[in-house]
Amino acid sequence: MLFILLSLLEHLLHTITGVEALLRWIHPVRGFVPPDIFVGNAEETGHIRPLTCWVVSKVIEEHDRLARNGFELKFAINLSGRLLTDDSFTDWVIETI
After folding, report:
1. Whole-number Cα distances in Å, 80 to 3, 12, 43
2. 82 near 43, Cβ under 8 Å?
3. Residues 49, 35, 41, 76: what is their CA dihedral angle, to the nearest 10 degrees?
């Protein structure tokens, strides 16, 4: 099961101003798989783009859900450096957000 964990980002005045999306994986047999293992594997096997697109889509859904409930927060997502040189990926992100 892949899921997004939202880590709260606090302002100096102790108010929540944003969240960081953290991807976590609990494998049905192996249990918790550390991100450095499965993200690195996704980069090596060419699966990092679909994985990242899934994360971006889920984060947008969560942002919209929270906004509808009165929470205007900034969201942060870590991206693979491999994707930053992919013009079609950056175009997709700009179009999607």
Report:
1. 18, 29, 8
2. yes
3. 20
Task: Measure the CA angle with vertex 58, ends 53 and 60; round to 5°.
Answer: 95
Please give the backbone phi and psi of residue 85, each rounded to the nearest 5 degrees, phi first.
-95, 0
DSSP string, 54-83: HHHHHHHHHHHHHHHTT---EEEE---HHH
Q: What does the pLDDT look like over 5-41, one tens digit per residue?
A: 666 666 666 778 788 899 999 999 999 999 999 999 9
Which two three-digit tokens encode residue 97? 């957000």
Cα 75 to Cα 9: distance, rounded to the nearest angstrom? 9
Q: How is residue 28 annotated by DSSP?
A: T
Of residues 37, 15, 12, the one with CA closest to residue 25: 37
Helix (H, G, I), strand (E, B) or coil at 3: strand
For the entire predicted model, the pTM comes to: 0.83
